[in-house]
Amino acid sequence: MNSEELLVRLTAIRDRVTVAAEKSGRNGEEVTVIAVTKTHPATTVAHLYGTGVTDLGENRIQEASTKIDELGHDPWRWHLIGSLQSNKAAQAVRMFDVVHSVDTLKLARRLDRVLADDPERGPMRILLQVNVADEASKSGFDLRGPGDGERWERFLGVVREIAALPNLVPCGLMTVAPLVDDPEQVRPCFRALARIRDALREHVPDRDWRELSMGMSNDFEIAVEEGATLVRIGRAILGARS
Ligand SMILES: *Cc1c(COP(=O)(O)O)cnc(C)c1O
Fold first, then answer.
1. Mutate to test the pocket of ligand 1, among 36, 59, 217 (most ligand atoms within 8 A of CB)
2. Is 77 helix (H, G, I), strand (E, B) or coil?
3. Confidence band of 9 (pLDDT split at 50, 70, 90)
4. What are the backbone dihedrals phi and psi of residue 224, each rounded to the nearest 5 degrees, phi first?
């Protein structure tokens, strides 16, 4: 796909984001489109340059590392959207601007520690991944919503510990909704994530929980209607993955 084709697709996506945002009384400019470039070679990703895309999403450290070497780190903002093993935390910190997939206290502590060893890097923005649909296969904190009994209390305890780590800037939540035929079916997941975010604003007010990373190619409009600020879109921009 060349730059012109990509621009056509991106324009259509931005229009759909705007319409979805307006449906719920929001402004489409509050929503950042992250182009998910996993599996696509750097030569393809390079065509995004000049299309207005500023944010790229990758889910594997090794693949992202190769691409960053080829494309350069700047002018992009790199988002890690796939799960991260603690032993790769140092690499992640060097490469990514935002990690969306923090899902244990152990990982958060590890990131905080490697950031402390690299004072020039500065604090790193993170999102906490929540498995709102409670799928056994998904990573993330298992939580259906605020008020989810003991799970909520446990989650809140962990969030408070993460919020106290000096080198991390927790700034919101992320979820991966189940794959369904009708995206309307995942609306409750997005709504639950927004409710958890609202509850964190109340219970952990010393951090800014503004970001909601939710919505992919097949369901981003529903996610935007429910408050997404970051949508992660792969196939609808770059086509099918090999
Ligand atoms: C691959 C991926 C996406 C993008 O999915 P598409 O259906 O191609 O838009 C979004 N989020 C995560 C976590 C992914 O792994």
1. 36
2. strand
3. very high
4. -65, -40
Q: Identify the CA nearest to 141 among candidates 116, 108, 184, 179.
A: 108
Ligand 1 centre and the CA of 231: distance in Å? 9
* pLDDT per position as a tens digit, 146-188: 888 899 999 999 999 999 999 999 999 999 999 999 999 999 9
- Helices and strands (H and E) in the chain: how many: 9, 9
| Residue span of the structural domain in which 144 resides | 3-238
Q: Checking DSSP bridges between strand 141-142 and strand 32-36, what pairing results, if any?
A: unpaired
Query: Ligand 1 centre and the CA of 95: distance in Å?
Result: 19
C-alpha dist (Å) from residue 135 to 18, 125, 141, 226: 31, 26, 11, 21
How many structural domains are present in the chain? Answer: 1
Average pLDDT value over all residues in the chain: 96
CATH code at 12? 3.20.20.10
